[in-house]
Automatic annotation (TrEMBL):
Residues 1-156 form the Major facilitator superfamily (MFS) profile domain. Pathway: Glycan biosynthesis; sucrose metabolism. It is found in: Membrane. Signal peptide: none annotated. Belongs to the glycoside-pentoside-hexuronide (GPH) cation symporter transporter (TC 2.A.2.4) family. This is Sucrose transporter type 1. It comes from Manihot esculenta (Cassava). Keywords: Membrane, Sugar transport, Symport, Transmembrane, Transmembrane helix, Transport. The chain crosses the membrane at residues 46-65, 86-106, 134-152, 198-218, 248-267, 279-298, 329-351, 363-384, 396-419. It is a multi-pass membrane protein. GO terms for molecular function: sucrose transmembrane transporter activity; symporter activity.
Length: 436
């Protein structure tokens, strides 16, 4: 085993790849222009290619960074389930803090003046602001990574420790007969040896993220298109109206992150109030389903209250929605921070608890759980466009599928998902002992 530990090398590499990816995304226009993209013409194929590669690296690096971080939290928590839940809740809280800081930085339009070199012929003010945000994020990420890896001590792993958890594989001399296994072999072996609680957790998680991804992918587009009535490919005024809706959606995401952060701090109290973490997860999935259904109501209200103005030449243009509808949409974003906080913490805590109970490895088990997140993401990304087009366009068809998936996830969480050890309510419906 590495003298740096099992988790820290992956955390360091993940942080480094995130920095590389963010650099590629931020400088995609400049790299494209240096590679031959015309400055005044669109599309810019080389810049798009650099952006896509950077985004792909970022997606891989995020998983490479967050997975070992959660596994390290589980290692540090040991068999203490309350510590495991609290650690994942705090992980969710600091994700929300990062979101809020990111939205705040992105809303400041003069940030590029700190790094004046970011504004170039290929990169306008908005692009320069984005690059400036990326520079700040890289510095923060690398600084915090160095501090965490320096001061957080990881328990060293040894082959003897690994053999202790694999008693069935030992021969009469006490030596393990297992040999190093390729990466995909480990994944398939982990799937083969999963116990029933983990399979149910994977199912509930998969349905949960099928519900989440349509909204996470198209929430600002929904605000710009359905709520504000704009069009990203329409006239100049329709494009302006669409941009206003997208900015309103960004404000909604900031409110969502604020609620997410505060809810993360109250996960333990909420779980005590409903009788356990699995009940809490099931309940908030129904909240998510309700919120996704509310997008239909808000859209229909926005359409029925759509106002138009006549401009020079006799053309009519749509006006922004009334204040009440905008407030309702922003409130919806905020309320969805509650189920999102639970989604970011409880499934990972339950995976750690189930794996610890079964004697399985934290890192590999959390990696398997991550498969139930990224596979729905790929499916939704590919299928949502054709699915929406099948019903005439817009974002509502995908949101409806998300609502159905959220309701199914809630039902399975409440009926099939077992209570984690120590989280079983008493016969009188009192709180689980693990919370006392």
């Amino acid at each position: 085993a590495s003298r740096f530990g099992r988790r820290r090398p992956f955390i360091a590499a993940g942080a480094a790849f995130v920095a590389v990816a963010v650099f590629l995304i931020g400088f995609a226009a400049d790299i494209g222009q240096l590679s031959g993209d015309p400055v005044a013409k669109s599309p810019k194929p080389r810049a798009i290619a650099v952006f896509v590669v950077g985004f792909w690296i970022l997606d891989v690096a995020n998983n490479m960074l967050q997975g070992p971080c959660r596994a390290l939290l589980a290692d540090l928590s040991g068999a203490n389930q309350k510590k495991t839940r609290t650690a994942n809740a705090l992980f969710s809280f600091f994700m929300a803090v990062g979101n809020v800081l990111g939205y705040a930085a992105g809303s400041y339009t003069h940030l590029y003046k700190i790094f004046p070199f970011t504004k170039t012929k290929a990169c306008d003010v908005y692009c320069a602001n984005l690059k400036s945000c990326f520079f700040i994020s890289i510095v923060l990420l690398l600084t915090l990574t160095v501090l965490a890896l320096t001061y957080v001590r990881e328990k060293q792993w040894s082959a003897e420790q690994g053999n202790t958890t694999a008693g069935d594989d030992e021969d009469e001399d006490g030596k393990s007969e297992s040999s190093p296994m390729p990466f995909f072999g480990e994944i398939f072996a982990a799937l083969k040896n999963l116990q029933r609680p983990m399979w149910i957790l994977l199912l509930v998680t998969c349905l949960n993220w099928i519900a989440w991804f349509p909204f996470l992918l198209f929430d600002t587009d929904w605000m710009g298109r359905e709520v504000y009535g704009g069009d990203s490919s329409g006239t100049a005024y329709q494009l302006k109206l669409y941009d206003r809706g997208v900015r309103a959606g960004a404000l909604g995401l900031m409110l969502n992150s604020v609620v997410l952060g505060f809810t993360s701090l109250g996960v333990e109290a909420l779980a005590r109030g409903v009788g356990g973490v699995k009940r809490l997860w099931g309940i908030v999935n129904f909240v998510l389903a309700f919120c996704l259904c509310m997008t239909i109501l808000i859209t229909k209200l926005a359409e029925s209250h759509r106002r138009f103005a006549t401009v020079a030449g006799g053309a009519t243009i749509p006006l922004p929605p009334p204040g009440g509808i905008k407030a309702g949409a922003l409130a919806l974003f905020a309320v969805m921070g509650v189920p999102q906080a639970i989604t970011y913490s409880i499934p990972f805590a339950m995976a750690s608890i189930f794996c610890n109970t079964a004697g399985a490895g934290q890192g590999l088990s959390l990696g398997v759980l991550n498969l139930s997140i990224v596979i729905p993401q790929m499916v939704v990304s590919v299928a949502s466009g054709p699915w929406d087009a099948l019903f005439g366009g817009g974002n509502l068809p995908a949101f409806v599928v998300g609502a159905v998936a959220a309701a199914a996830s809630g039902i399975f969480a409440l009926t099939l998902l077992p209570f984690p050890q120590g989280d079983i309510p008493s016969a009188k419906g009192l709180m689980p002992a693990a919370f006392h």
